């Protein structure tokens, strides 16, 4: 389970660093604190999962489109940038999927009979 939490923390910090790049301190702090939801109840993990999936589309998807458009407009190479940004989107989506494993693990621990 620790590796799932680690991936979620890294994905949130990566997204927070993206916000910090544009001097959005509130967004950066929100994503830096978001992994604390891993230790909450199931609905908190679902919220974190939705936030990460939303970040894939709203943050990384839009940034990818903007960056590739700028590269195409200037005639600069863009394929490597697209590959890197696609890998970032896959990583954040995988971190969102890791939330599902934590939820499943919490359900089995709460539903297990006491020994």
Could you describe the 3D structure shown?
The chain has helices spanning 2-21, 25-33, 42-74, 79-111. It has 115 residues and is mainly α. The longest helix is centred in the middle third of the chain and has 33 residues, at 42-74. The model has no long low-confidence stretch (mean pLDDT 91).
Number of helices: 4
Query: How many strand units?
Result: 0
Q: Approximately how much helix is present in the residues?
A: over 70%
Structural class by SSE content: mainly alpha
Quick one: biggest sheet?
none
Proportion of strand residues: under 5%
Q: From N to C, what is the helix and strand string?
A: HHHH
Alpha carbon gyration radius: 17 Å
The end-to-end distance, rounded to whole angstroms, is: 22 Å
Shape: elongated
How many individual domains? 1
Mean pLDDT: 91
Low-confidence parts lasting 5 or more residues at pLDDT below 50? Answer: none
Strand and helix layout:
Elements lengths: L1 H20 L3 H9 L8 H33 L4 H33 L4
Helix pairs in contact: 1-2, 1-4, 3-4
């Amino acid at each position: 389970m620790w590796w799932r939490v680690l991936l979620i923390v890294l994905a949130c910090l990566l997204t927070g660093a993206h916000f910090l790049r544009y001097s959005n301190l509130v967004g950066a702090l929100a994503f830096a604190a978001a992994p604390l939801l891993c230790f909450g109840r199931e609905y908190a993990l679902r919220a974190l999962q939705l936030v990460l999936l939303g970040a894939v589309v709203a943050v990384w998807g839009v940034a990818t489109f903007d960056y590739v458009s700028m590269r195409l407009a200037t005639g600069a190479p863009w394929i490597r940038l697209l590959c890197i940004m696609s890998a970032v989107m896959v990583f954040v989506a995988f971190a969102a999927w890791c939330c599902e494993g934590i939820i499943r693990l919490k359900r089995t621990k709460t539903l297990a009979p006491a020994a």
